[in-house]
Amino acid sequence: MNESPYLTHREILLNGMYGTAYCLQQFVLHQLDPYRYAFDIDNHSGGFDGRHIQIYKDMKQWYWDNGPASVGFKEVAEIIQSRRTQQAQSNLEQLRRLREMRPEDYPHEPGENQLEAYRSDVELHEWFHRKHVAKGDIDE
């Protein structure tokens, strides 16, 4: 392997918006900070096709051989981390605004049950917050 897999697969790692790409992104974060970002390949490998499992293996081997200062790794990892932290913080800010709002003031579509729409939006933001915390994107 002559080129860093973090550079070779940069597009997937930074812009992939599908399940396996998200798993690879989580693995990069795990390599960056294994105490903050959990990752266990056994929980994901069933969803990896041959191409994506090879990307995982290449990143694992490259990191093992070259360490955290290797070409491409730190930049890709920090971009992923920054984006995920921003998404988590944005979701938390929206959740806080919703919680501060009176349900009766919640903007809703005509014909929509305002209170149900409010509760649904709060529950959705709470769900995303739990996911962000579980992935290590933000602290509780």
Supply the key terms.
2 domains, mainly alpha, 65% helix, 0% strand
Q: Which sheet architecture does the biggest sheet show? A: none
The string of secondary-structure elements, in order, is HHHHHH
Q: How many domain regions? A: 2
Q: Mean of residue pLDDT? A: 93
Rg over CA atoms: 19 Å
Write the layout of secondary structure elements.
Layout: H1 5-8, H2 10-15, H3 19-32, H4 50-66, H5 73-100, H6 114-135
Helix pairs in contact: 3-4, 3-5, 5-6
Task: Report what the structure shows.
The protein has 140 residues and is mostly helical. It folds into 2 domains: 5-75, no CATH class; 80-135. The chain has 6 helices and no strands. The protein has helices spanning 5-8, 10-15, 19-32, 50-66, 73-100, 114-135. α3 (19-32) packs parallel to α4, α3 crosses α5 and α5 (73-100) packs antiparallel against α6. The longest helix has 28 residues, at 73-100. The termini are far apart. The mean pLDDT is 93.
Task: Summarize this structure briefly.
The chain has helices spanning 5-8, 10-15, 19-32, 50-66, 73-100, 114-135. It is mainly α and 140 residues long.
